[in-house]
Design a protein that fits this description.
Elements lengths: L21 H32 L1 H11 L2 H28 L6 H25 L1
Helix pairs in contact: 1-2, 1-3, 3-4
């Protein structure tokens, strides 16, 4: 029979009781970076369309893309691309049923975070 005296306890792990793990946070961040990559792609496509349209329109769009905001969006897109790539490689590794132990999964999570920052810095230095 169903428990009719539930009292004040939560029905599921609540944010006040539940401490998010690194693996869940990196999973959420993978979804966020995947969607954020669309912003950089739209900005790049807008720039390419402006280049094909007219010189005055291209100057306008190029001014936006090369502004501090445009550079910030592009830097974020570079980081998101590296993060999303490394997280995808981590998932491919997990799909082979390896690295699923808690300690290994946490090390892979830190590897994705640190690796994406390092690769972003190297990309910016090279470009």
């Amino acid at each position: 029979m169903a428990d009719v005296n539930r009292g004040n306890r939560p029905l599921s792990p609540h944010l006040q009781v539940y401490r998010p793990q690194l693996t869940s946070m990196t999973s959420i961040l993978t979804r966020i970076t995947g969607n954020a990559l669309l912003v950089g792609a739209v900005l790049l496509i807008w720039w390419l369309v402006a280049a094909a349209t007219s010189e005055s329109y291209f100057e306008f769009v190029d001014c936006i893309v090369t502004s501090w905001f445009g550079k910030l969006v592009m830097l974020g897109s570079i980081w998101a691309l590296w993060y999303h790539t490394l997280a995808g490689l981590r998932h491919l590794y997990w799909d082979s049923l390896r690295g699923l132990e808690l300690r290994t999964a946490e090390m892979l999570g830190w590897g994705v975070i640190i690796g994406s920052v390092i690769l972003t810095i190297l990309t910016v230095l090279v470009l």
